[in-house]
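Hey,
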Amino acid sequence: MTDIEISQSVQPQRIQEIAEKLGLNEGQLELYGKYKAKIPLDLKITHKSEGNLVLVTAITPTPAGEGKTTTSIGLADGLNKIGKKTVVVLREPSLGPVFGIKGGAAGGGWSQVIPMEDINLHFTGDFNAIEKANNLLAALIDNNIQSKNRNLNIDPRTVTWKRCMDMNDRSLRNIIVALGGKAGGIPRESGFDITAASEIMAILCLSKDFEDLKERIGQILIGSTFDGKPIYAKDLNAQGAMAVLLKDAIKPNLVQTLEGNPAIIHGGPFANIAQGTNSIIATKTGLALANFTVTEAGFGADLGAEKFLNIKCRAAGLSPKAIVLVATIRALKYHGGKSLNELKEEDTAALMAGLPNLERHIKSLQTFNVPIVVSINSFVSDTEREKDLLIQHCNSLGVPVALNNGWAEGGNGCTDLASKVVEATEKCSTKYTPTYQLEDSIREKMEKVCKTIYGANHVILSNKAKAQLNRYEKMGYGNLPICMAKTQKSLSDDEKQLGRPENFDINIREFELAAGAGFIIPIAGNILRMPGLPETPSAENISISPEGKISGLF
């Protein structure tokens, strides 16, 4: 069966029953129908210091992804199977990938969160609220530029704030706004970002409460005046109205796995352009309500895990007790030189040639001083020889490894992985070690990430990047963490360099300042904030029957 057929074959439990497993009653929920609910912020849930936070990350992925979400859900079900009270905390899917290349993004096989259709589509409206808050600020900016009486003297050429939409649409990347004559406003160049790339998304996921949310929104840098003075969202008095639009979106969402275990889903920033992980509020809620909290970070460990640890954990005061590194035989063969249409064929030579990518990620993650467990996400095309070879290689590296059959067997296929994760958490007695200190200069932070995590030689800045860096440091932002924007397809900044590249530099084209989110974004290469659709988008296979039954979400 397809993923959606599997999800539709399971009768979900009422969300009140799921909440009871976390010690919550119906009066503490905001119900969104029978199978979804919001968890209010006024519950005053406190983070238990003894909670076990488990981060799921991956090797450098193929275009289809390597199953971090599937592994996270299967692991959570597996931990519950062996008697550990566990909740999985995930990001919300973006409609861009859903209708683009991936189809559904709520797990796979028998390791899914449900209701799968709702989660993949509009869910509880969080992305819509983020989009509206983002676009309200854009409207206020253009309105002020047009205004005669309350004009802040904004130089339209310096406005960096774009509108956003949760869809892949390359034709909106670069546009001219305010055409149509005098009544249409002052024409200027602009564009659209995908909603997951909006700074509002990053802010929502890093905010601790409503006050923090408003404060962060007010700090958004939108441009400068004609005489070079920075202009912030608070100068437009935008933060109050924008926060109102986010009054429900800031609350985490409660759903369930196919096996009826609790799942919290909230926020959805991409990891190649933002921090790539769910909200601080959602993660802390999970830690307060369960003994084990399994969460994931986007793309490979060089992006998602690095930012989870250096940005999110630093901001939230969190520290994982174990890191699960997802590896697949198909991805390792891809890094070993096989083409995408050849990955189902047995090829131990290609597998061996791709192992350095796994080794690089293990080496990078070990610098955080958190126990690591390798999870082999099993596919039906994997052969016994290939699985044995990969297990033996992990054993030779001294890293615990387990086969993960969550896709085919759900929690029953993840109990070995669950046991090894429990053992890893029991060995963790210290907090993680960050890659850099906030007191380091921005250049030092980049050098440490690029050398320690990617294995690069040096960081090279363009003249434009040098000028921007100098400006941001003079503005007092040099002590912010960095959020590296680079391709997810390679450890380098060149997507064609697969495997474990060596003797390469990271080239920073420009910087962006996300002052509200609280980080600086060095951009390496041509990173798109508005993706395009593939030649054959998944949208072509998605439909709905006369009875209202959705198909094609894979």
